[in-house]
């Protein structure tokens, strides 16, 4: 018998003073049996980073042709494609040719090795940004996750303060490519 997805509920509060974007949103997230706490947390943080573009979670682990998160316009055309981890160059190229904005969000210790191997290939894509979340912060926050959680994010002067019910943690997004 195949394992089923685990459902998480998240009350997300974003106060982004830099963009004057403020929202309280209730999210229901399906966690694939093979997904780690860290990856689920990175999906949530990526969703929050691009929240003003009205992103949606996809079935990326069930359907490998989809990203982790996307955003569509009113006609259904893709306008934002967000990949997590270390996607291969062919998937990134395909996304960059289809979508107006593509982002990769990495979060492991191996990111700098992967980036060194792919940086020259990715410079040709003008609509691609690559961001890195420090694995220590991701692990610390992921340890605080629960199936019913409150995620609060405050952004001011580029600084992210993230809380999952405990003390806020400073999360520094490293920009590898804009």
Summarize the structure.
With 178 residues, the protein is an alpha/beta fold. The protein is built from four helices and eleven strands; from the N terminus they run E-E-H-E-E-E-H-E-H-E-H-E-E-E-E.
Overall description:
The structure is a single chain. By secondary structure, the protein is an alpha/beta fold. It has a single domain, classed as Roll (Restriction endonuclease-like alpha-beta roll fold), CATH 3.10.640.10. The protein contains four helices and eleven strands. The protein has helices at residues 37-49, 89-98, 111-122, 135-142, and strands spanning 6-16, 21-31, 56-57, 69-72, 78-84, 101-106, 128-132, 148-156, 159-163, 169-171, 174-177. The chain has a six-stranded mixed β-sheet, sandwiched between helices. A five-stranded mixed β-sheet has the order 2-1-8-9-10, with helices on one face. A hairpin with a 2-residue loop joins strand 8 and strand 9 (159-163). Helix 1 packs across helix 4 (135-142).
Secondary-structure map with pairings?
Layout: E1 6-16, E2 21-31, H1 37-49, E3 56-57, E4 69-72, E5 78-84, H2 89-98, E6 101-106, H3 111-122, E7 128-132, H4 135-142, E8 148-156, E9 159-163, E10 169-171, E11 174-177
Parallel strand pairs: 1-8, 5-6, 6-7
Antiparallel strand pairs: 1-2, 3-4, 4-5, 7-11, 8-9, 9-10
Helix pairs in contact: 1-4
């Amino acid at each position: 018998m195949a394992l089923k997805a685990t459902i998480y509920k998240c009350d997300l509060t974003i106060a982004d003073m830099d963009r004057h974007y403020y929202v309280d949103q209730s999210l229901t997230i399906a966690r694939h049996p093979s997904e780690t706490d860290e990856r689920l947390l990175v999906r949530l943080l990526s969703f929050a980073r691009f929240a003003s573009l009205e992103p949606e979670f996809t079935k990326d682990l069930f359907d490998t042709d989809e990203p982790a998160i996307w955003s569509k316009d009113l006609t259904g055309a893709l306008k934002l494609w967000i990949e997590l981890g270390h996607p291969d160059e062919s998937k990134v190229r395909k996304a960059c040719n289809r979508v107006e904005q593509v982002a990769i969000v990495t979060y492991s210790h191996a990111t700098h090795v992967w980036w060194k191997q792919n940086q020259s290939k990715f410079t040709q894509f003008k609509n691609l940004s690559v961001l890195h979340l420090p694995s220590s912060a991701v692990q610390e926050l992921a340890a605080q996750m629960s199936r019913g959680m409150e995620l609060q994010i405050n952004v001011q002067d580029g600084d992210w303060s993230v809380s999952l019910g405990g003390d806020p943690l400073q999360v520094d997004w490293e920009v590898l490519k804009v």
